[in-house]
Amino acid sequence: MLRKLYHWTLSLAARKTAEVWLAVIAFVESSVFLVPADVLFLPMALARPKRAYRYALVATVFSTLGGMAGYFLGLFAYEALAKPVLELYGKLDDFERLRQCAGEDTLMLLLVTSGLSHLPPIKVVTILAGVAQISFLFFVLSCIIARGARFFALAWALRRYGEPISGFIEKRLGLIAAVGAAILIALYLLVKYSGLSGALTAC
To answer: What is the C-alpha separation between 63 and 59, in angstroms, rounded?
Structure first.
C-alpha cells in the first residue's frame, strides 16, 4: 500500500496541476497523509528550478496550515478523529509513548525536529501538540521556521547542484534528517544537563 501511495504521489509531479497537488499533499501530510511532500517537491523543483523557491514557499505555507489542522484535531477531536487516523497508519503506539513521557519542553523540541526531518512523524507531533495544549503561537512559529528551513534548503541545493544532488538527497534523505535531528537533540541535552534550563520532563 505504502509503495503504491509513494508512486502515485510521485506521478503528480508530471501533471499541470502539480503545484495545486503540492499544496494539498503538504497540507494533509501534517495530519492524515503518510507520504511526505518532499516526494512531490523534489521532482517539481528539478523540472523547473527557477520555480524551486516558489514551490518551497507553497510547501511551507500549506504544511504549516496542515500542522494547524492537526493541532486542532488533537485539541478538539482526538478520540473521534485523530486517534483513528493514528491507528490506521500504525502510529498510535508512537503517539501514546510520546504522550506519556514528553514534557512541554521536550515536545517543543520534537516540533522542531519533526519539521526539519520527520523525526518523529509530523502528524504524531502536531496532534500531540494539540492534546498537550502547547502554546499555539510557538507551534505556528516552529512550523514556519522548521518546515521552511527544510523546503528552502532543498530548493537551494537543487537550484545550485541540479540533478546530481537530487539522487543524493533522495537516497540519503533519511540519513541527513537523522543527523540533523541528532545534532538538535544533542544541543537540547547539553542545555538540559548543564543547568542552563529549568526542570524538564524527558522520555
So the answer is: 6
How many domains does one find in the chain? 1
Domain membership flag for residue 199 = no
User: Of 4-18, 117-131, 144-158, 186-200, which range is least confident?
Assistant: 186-200
CB 69 within 8 A of CB 30: yes
In a domain, 201, yes or no: no
Q: Give the residue among 64, 112, 114 at the shortest CA–CA distance from 94.
A: 114
Return the HEC string of the chain.
Answer: CHHHHHHHHHHHHHCCCHHHHHHHHHHHHCCCCCCCCHHHHHHHHHHCHHHHHHHHHHHHHHHHHHHHHHHHHHHHCHHHHHHHHHHHCCCHHHHHHHHHHCCHHHHHHHHHHHHHHCCCCHHHHHHHHHHHCCCHHHHHHHHHHHHHHHHHHHHHHHHHHCHHHHHHHHHHHHHHHHHHHHHHHHHHHHHHHCCCCCCCCCC
Predicted structure pTM score: 0.72
Q: Which structural domain range is residue 122 located in?
A: 2-193
Task: Tell me if 198 is assigned to some domain.
Answer: no
Q: What pLDDT, in 10s, does the model give residues 162-180?
A: 666 555 555 555 555 555 5
